[in-house]
């Protein structure tokens, strides 16, 4: 009986090891293990043409913040204008707009794996990458030259470049389609007003959907809906929130709506606004709270918003000024400040690191 017990134990451990090994596949996507946070990264955009984009790291264990974390780990700066940051699998991707690069690093050590160039070699001009999203083993990067590039997350090679609308910004995925907000921002005042739809099977644009002027933020929400936040022309055309049904690609709703940026969490959306963050119910299409901050904490220049789905905490990035250091505030579910972290210049995004 004892021999059988140890044989069974050995077999069990072998099966556990096999499962663990199989989880490390070529498709470098998110794992299924429970999420336990070790800290978070802050992408500090920096000032345009100042070459001072940076990465900060806040450690939950010792409640300390490390500034210029990327530079410390790699002996060089991050570059000019950090615009987006995402963790996918074991890698972290940092989109550096004016430097025309996507930095790919080990998510835990921040050691560089590869710097992907976004320079059009034929035209010898920078593509100006903006945002990044993921689907299966592909990364999709929008760029101001009117393209979305497809990167294989295993080889980190750009496999294809898809032409979309003018000055594309944020992207969202629903029903095996990629929705790309074409702002036309570089053609001011002649803005674009379309959302490109890319079929994720053929990796080609299949249509453009007309929305309000200057769409910049697009997010997938409940029931297959796509929410598009358009800024307008900063004059007589006001900001607008449009809703697209991803099953039919029809615009089902469009209304004037204030608030910048947009983050969807379940049935709620959160919009940056003067002094704080607005909460909006997507099911009733109504404002729930004009400001989720309940303790009077003043946000001078709201510059970024993140939600931790593990802890239920809200993180608000405050640029404070457009020249000095910024602050990231952590708020609990009750809207009260739990702590604040000193950041670099123009903190714009927070991403959470698991143990």
UniProtKB/TrEMBL annotation:
Gene3D superfamilies: YVTN repeat-like/Quinoprotein amine dehydrogenase
Keyword set, alphabetical order: Signal
PROSITE patterns reported in the protein's UniProt record: PROKAR_LIPOPROTEIN
Keyword Signal: yes
Transmembrane feature ranges: none
This protein's name: Cell surface protein
Species annotation: Pelobium manganitolerans
Superkingdom: Bacteria
Family matches, as InterPro entries: DUF5074 (IPR031815), Host-pathogen_enzymatic-act (IPR051200), N2O_reductase_N (IPR011045), WD40/YVTN_repeat-like_dom_sf (IPR015943)
Leader peptide range in chain numbering: 1-25
């Amino acid at each position: 009986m004892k021999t059988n017990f140890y044989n069974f134990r050995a077999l069990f451990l072998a099966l556990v090891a096999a499962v663990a090994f199989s989880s490390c596949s070529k498709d470098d996507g998110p794992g299924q293990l429970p999420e336990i946070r070790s800290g978070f990264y802050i992408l500090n955009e920096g000032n345009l043409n100042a070459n001072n984009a940076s990465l900060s790291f806040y450690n939950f264990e010792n409640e300390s913040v490390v500034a210029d974390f990327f530079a410390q780990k790699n002996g060089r700066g991050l570059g000019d204008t950090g615009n987006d940051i995402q963790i996918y699998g074991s890698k972290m991707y940092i989109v550096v707009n004016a430097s025309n690069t996507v930095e790919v690093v080990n998510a835990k050590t921040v050691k560089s794996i590869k710097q992907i160039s976004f320079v059009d070699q034929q035209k010898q001009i920078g593509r100006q990458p903006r945002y990044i999203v993921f689907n299966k083993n592909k990364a999709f990067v929008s760029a101001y030259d009117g393209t979305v590039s497809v990167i294989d997350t295993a080889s980190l090679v750009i496999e294809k470049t898809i032409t979309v609308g003018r000055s594309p910004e944020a992207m969202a995925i629903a029903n095996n389609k990629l929705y790309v907000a074409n702002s036309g921002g570089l053609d001011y005042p002649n803005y674009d007003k379309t959302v490109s739809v890319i079929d994720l099977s053929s990796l080609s644009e299949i249509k453009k959907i007309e929305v309000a002027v200057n769409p910049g933020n697009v997010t997938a929400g409940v029931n297959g809906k796509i929410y598009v936040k358009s800024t307008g022309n900063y004059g007589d055309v006001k900001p607008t929130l449009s809703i697209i049904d991803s099953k039919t690609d029809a615009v089902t709703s469009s209304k004037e709506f204030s608030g910048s940026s947009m983050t969807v969490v379940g049935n709620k959306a959160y919009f940056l606004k003067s002094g704080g963050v607005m909460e909006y119910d997507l099911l009733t299409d109504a404002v729930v709270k004009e400001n989720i901050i309940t303790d009077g904490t003043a946000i001078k220049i709201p510059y970024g918003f993140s939600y931790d789905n593990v802890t239920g905490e809200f993180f608000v990035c405050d640029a404070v000024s457009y020249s000095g250091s910024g602050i990231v505030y952590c708020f609990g579910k009750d809207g009260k400040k739990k702590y604040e972290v000193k950041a670099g210049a123009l903190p714009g995004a927070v991403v959470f690191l698991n143990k």
